[in-house]
Amino acid sequence: MSGRSPFGLGVARGLPFIVIMLPFGMLFGVLATEIGLPVAQAMGFSVLVIAGASQFTAVQLIAEGVPAAVVVLAALAVNLRMVMYSAAMVPHLGSAALWQRAAVSYLLVDQTYALAVSAYEDSPAWTLRDKLMFFAGTALPVFPAWVGASWIGAALGGRIPESWSLDFALPLAFLALVGPMLKTPAHVTAALVSVAAALAFAWVPWNLGLMIAAALAMMAGAEVERRS
């Protein structure tokens, strides 16, 4: 680790994600307004949910006229990974004050989780305060970038040229997160199974194939971990 404070280190590691979060958030804002959501509702989505994959899933299903119950269940299923993220954070931040845990849970997204867990593993001597400060540092650039970009996309709507191809940000965001975390055979197995299953079940309506793929990937990764 460098000589920076945990907070400064967190900010430094979170800043590069702005490059991805800006087009990612703008794309969500554009799609949300294209299906008829006013800017206020689109922003409420980004501020309250703060989960890009879940928000994109919900917006796409709404555009297809899927029943509201299925939209909610699909969005929740996509966001179930946050349960696993929370469980992984308990050994590090479980003893924090209630308000601190509430703040962490609100700001716990793919980027802050990936950065925090990696740093915690590399710095076993960090105190609880160090870990909290690092997490706050990672969230400082990520959260405003997501909300601000969502507002830009929602406010401009269809005026953003299609030639900008903002949709590149969605897969790029997750590749940037997942790649460095493939450290064990279980991780690699889960990633490969998820890709194969997502392609195999792409025909399932309402994007439910993604949930099938996620379940199969978790089971495959858990089995490899058990055997090793």
From TrEMBL:
Membrane topology: Multi-pass membrane protein
InterPro entries in UniProt: Brnchd-chn_aa_trnsp_permease (IPR011606)
Domain of life (superkingdom): Bacteria
Keyword annotations from UniProtKB, A to Z: Cell membrane, Membrane, Transmembrane, Transmembrane helix, Transport
Listed transmembrane segments: 12-32, 69-90, 102-120, 132-152, 188-218
Subcellular compartments: Cell membrane
Family, as annotated: Belongs to the AzlC family.
Protein name as it appears in the record: AzlC family ABC transporter permease
Organism field: Jannaschia ovalis
